[in-house]
Structures are given as C-alpha cells and as structure tokens.
Backbone:
C-alpha cells in the first residue's frame, strides 16, 4: 500500500483543480486520471469542515429506521441549495438528488443510509446523543452507532463537490439518501409480514430507473485508517430472520407424560439446527451461520407451557445456498418437533436481505479509480458475516460496495469498539477521504467508455 494520502490532500493548496481539469480531453472517453482526481480533491477539501459539522449535527440528532424526518429535511435542503432536482418521501423518508451534468452521458448513483440504532451511547463525545424514540412500543435511547451519520455527511460533501463541477460532468449523478437500512420500522403482522422498507422500498419507488451503476460505502472502526476494504463477489452475508413457534400441550411439570413439552422439543430443535450448517450445507462452497438468539416459553418452574417462541438469524453468501438453508431449517425444525408430538411452525423475515455481491466486471473496472482516490490504500478483505441492504440495489443494477477504515484517533483498529457498540466512534479526518472516493468512483464511471 502506497501512503500517498498526505500528498493528495496537498492538492487543495496547489489550486490546480478546476472543473475544466475534470476532462482533460473532452472528445475522448477515459478513466479518471490524476488531474481529474485533483479537481475532485480540491472541491472536497473545500467542504471538509462542513462535513464535520453535518456529521456532528446528525450524530446529536439521530433518528430510528423509518423516522429519519429531520435528517431527510437537512439533506433535501442542502441538495436544493446546490440546484439539484430533489425528490423527497421516496420509499418512506428517502431523499434523492439528481445532478445533470453539462454533457450527455450515463447515469450513476451514490448511496448513503440515514438511520440510527435503538441503543444508548457511552462515547462521552461532546455531541453524544441524548435522543429517545419509540421502538416497537417502548421508549428507547437512539444512537448513530453504525456510522450512518458519517455516510450522510460524506455524501452531502460529495454532492456539493460534484455540483461545483456540473458543467464538465459527462452524465448524471443520483444521490440516494436511504432510510431504514437497519431493519423494518414497524412490527410484523400476524403472518410475519411488514411493508417493504429501506433499499427495497426505494427500488420499488423507481429510484434506479435509468441508473447504470451504483456505489456505496460503509465506515468501519475495524480497518486501518484511510484504507478501503473491498472484495469481488460476495462481500457481506445475506440475512434472514428465523421465527419458530413450537406448539406443545401444557401440563403439570411433575407429570410430563400427560403433556407435550415444547421446552424440550424447542431445545432439540436448537441443537438440531446446528446440523444444518455442519452436516447439511456444502460449506466447501461458501460459509454459513445459523444463530438462535431468543427463546421465550413458560411462566413458572413447575408448569409445562403450551408453546415456545424462538427467533434467530441465517447468514449466507450464495443465493442458492440461502434458499437451500431456508428449506432445511424448516424441514429440520418440523421433523424434530414432530418426533415428540409437538409441532414447529417456521417463518422467515421481516429482514430478508440478499447477499451483498460486487460483480467482478464492475469491481475490476472501478478499482483503478478507487485506488487512485485512496492513494493506493485499498485492500482485499475477508467476507463479512454482517449484512447490508445495499444488496437490494445490486439485485437491480451492478453495484460496488466497500468499507472505509476510520478507527478513532489513537485507537488500534484491531481493538477499537466495533459498529453497533455503545462506544463506537470514528475518525472524522476520514470524512473527506470517503467523500473523495465516492465522487471519484462516480466521475470515473461516467467518463469510462
Ligand atoms: Ni450500518
């Protein structure tokens, strides 16, 4: 890895970057070059301080999935001030800004997610969240513990930088600010169904109409600072909620023969499900994970209850394996419960995110621009068993997703509190780095033949 980032940030002082430099040879389509990157970097450095202010403001005012009203208003106002066409209320509270370049060409999209998490913040930052909101009928603290505040600030910065280069842009850039990445904003109905949310709802609202490629990033405290982590093919797992209702027949704890004990049946189901990954799926192809994270049953030590409810998650890296695992989880749970006279009813959702997969062709084509924008600091990372609904966009158009390393200053990335920790924090110096990489990928895509 070539540590050239400090040199890149010097570009601001060189004053070389002008919109005209974006396309040094307008008649000839070509990938982003150093002069083009310098123009982008100059523009990004010009909004670096604003990005920090936006990030802190959004951090202090976090909003839960589907409730991103204040954040969406802030974004929409900014995009309007930049002279863009702005759509609001897209797939819920989503905002889309369209920047039409001065020259005809392709359409590329950049995406940031806007929502925060129902959890406390213990960072002690001067702009730490004190927000509360209602989540599934309970009052909960709300915190930007996944860095989506930084994603919004970076994309607002990239939007301002690219708006300043509008005349030279050969095509259109869509800025997609997405709600509800973290999950369904409402409780499922009796059948386990919820209305579409997040990326899926935006896709259904037509946000990808005419779009030829989409790019997005996730900030991470567990990668070295200023490094882009990427991989071709499956990057992040598909995620499916598992819900299992084990129906027995209640009775006295002293006479289990006169009852059907759903506690014992559910216990056997939990153990049996471990064989789906270890014995039933071909894990030489891709890894998979099944975790049961929640079990509820019974009210008293000597009462056999009527039923047990269990919730869990399935993580897969291949759509075929995912479909296979869903079937096998159902069959395994039903058959094990039946063996003791109980009945298992299995359903999946509301979270059902596909695998986040970077297509080989787009990855290969985008890497030179990513590496240029990162000063060479880009590295292939292992698969991530976490999930991302960016995959819903990738189902419709080629999309490239990557991580941006930004552990807090003075913290080792190997031990820094991870995303979703109440201690999660980032290095704000990486905001311009992320914004520059997004803008560079968009310009490069528009310029490439
Ligand atoms: Ni996230």
Residues:
């Amino acid at each position: 890895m070539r540590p050239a980032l400090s040199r890149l940030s010097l570009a601001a002082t060189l004053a070389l970057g002008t919109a005209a430099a974006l396309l040094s040879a307008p008649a000839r389509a070509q990938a982003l070059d150093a002069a083009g990157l310098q123009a982008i970097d100059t523009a990004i450095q010009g909004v670096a301080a604003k990005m920090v202010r936006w990030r802190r403001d959004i951090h202090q005012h976090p909003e839960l999935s589907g409730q991103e009203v204040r954040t969406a208003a802030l974004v929409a106002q900014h995009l309007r001030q930049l002279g863009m066409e702005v759509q609001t209320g897209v797939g819920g509270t989503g905002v889309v800004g369209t920047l039409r370049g001065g020259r005809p060409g392709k359409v590329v999209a950049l995406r940031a997610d806007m929502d925060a998490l129902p959890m406390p913040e213990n960072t002690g930052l001067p702009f730490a969240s004190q927000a509360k909101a209602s989540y599934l009928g309970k009052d909960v603290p709300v915190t930007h513990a996944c860095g989506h505040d930084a994603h919004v600030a970076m994309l607002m910065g990239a939007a301002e930088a690219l708006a300043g280069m509008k005349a030279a842009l050969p095509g259109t850039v869509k800025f997609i600010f997405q709600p509800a990445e973290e999950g369904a904003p409402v409780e499922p109905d009796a059948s386990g169904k919820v209305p579409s949310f997040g990326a899926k709802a935006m896709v259904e609202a037509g946000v990808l109409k005419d779009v030829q490629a989409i790019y997005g990033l996730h900030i991470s405290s567990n990668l070295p600072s200023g490094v882009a982590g990427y991989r071709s093919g499956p990057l992040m797992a598909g995620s499916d909620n598992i819900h299992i209702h084990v129906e027995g027949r209640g009775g006295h704890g002293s006479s289990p023969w006169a009852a059907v004990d759903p506690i014992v049946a559910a216990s056997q189901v939990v153990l049996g499900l471990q064989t789906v990954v270890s014995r039933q799926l071909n894990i030489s192809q891709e890894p998979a994970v099944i975790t049961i994270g929640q079990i509820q049953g019974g009210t008293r030590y000597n009462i056999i209850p009527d039923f047990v409810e269990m919730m869990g998650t399935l993580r897969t890296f291949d759509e075929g394996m995912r479909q296979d695992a869903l079937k096998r989880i159902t069959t395994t749970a039903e058959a094990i419960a039946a063996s003791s006279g109980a009945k298992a009813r299995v359903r999946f959702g509301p979270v059902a995110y596909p695998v986040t997969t970077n297509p080989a062709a787009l990855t290969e084509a985008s890497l030179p621009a990513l590496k240029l924008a990162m000063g060479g600091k880009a590295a292939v990372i292992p698969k991530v068993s976490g999930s991302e609904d960016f995959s819903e966009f990738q189902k419709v158009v080629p999309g490239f997703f990557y991580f941006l390393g930004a552990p807090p200053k003075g913290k080792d990335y190997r031990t820094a509190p991870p995303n979703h920790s109440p201690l999660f924090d980032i290095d704000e110096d990486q905001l311009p780095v992320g914004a520059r990489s997004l803008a560079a990928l968009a310009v490069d895509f528009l310029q490439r033949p």
Remarks:
- Residues 253 and 302 are 4 Å apart (CA to CA).
- The mean pLDDT is 93.
